Amino acid sequence: MLKKILVLGTWCLVLGMGIYLILPIPDFPPPPPGSLQSLEPADTESIYRKSYFTNMSRPEIMAMYDKSYSSPVQYRMDLPPESAYTVIRDQTRSSYLEEIIHPFRDSLYINVFVPIKPYSLFKQNYSPSNSFPADDQNYGHAPCWNCGLFNYQRIPTCLK
Fold first, then answer.
1. Are residues 94 and 122 in the same domain?
2. Phi, psi of 133 (to 5 degrees)
3. Cβ-count burial 33-51 (b if 16+ within 10 Å, e if not)
């Protein structure tokens, strides 16, 4: 009797795992609402790495990605920001790094960098003529060094 229960339990477990593994993997999540995509070379060298500029907070970002990248079985891991060098790309700066894991299938890393010093906002060789590409849809926006507000002009100027 006990042997039959163990065999039945094993088959149920195998069947459940098989169904879980056959389910489709979620598509790459859409960009956060109101965000702008970065066109920097390091952000576009792989189709699996995308970078966005947004004013959303950490709970808003994680709730959005939890909702858009959901699976029947998933959990989140909070990783140290120093791991971004090995997990995302070398020379990647990070304020926090989280991973949404679908066990035995795939995972999604969410790396967020919040600049707190002016030299973190732009490249060191910044000049207004060479920092932003010509198109008005996808170019790097950064907060004003004086007031911290985002503006959407080609040259960073204070909005206050």
1. no
2. -65, 170
3. eebbbbeeeeeeeeeeeeb
pTM above 0.85, yes or no: no
Q: Is residue 153 located within the same domain as residue 87?
A: no
More confident residue, 25 or 122: 25
Q: Are strands 52-53 and 75-79 parallel, antiparallel or unpaired?
A: unpaired
pLDDT band at 11 (very low <50, low <70, confident <90, very high): very high
- What is d(CA 147, CA 4) in angstroms, rounded to the nearest whole number? 71
Q: In what order do the strands lie in the sheet with 106-112?
A: 75-79, 96-102, 106-112
**Position 38, amino acid:** S
Are residue 140 and residue 107 in the same domain, yes or no? no
Residues 122 and 104 in one domain: no
pLDDT band per the 50, 70, 90 thresholds, residue 9: very high
- In which domain, by residue range, is 107 found? 34-114
Asked if residue 24 belongs to a domain, the reply is: no
| pLDDT higher than 60, residue 136 | no
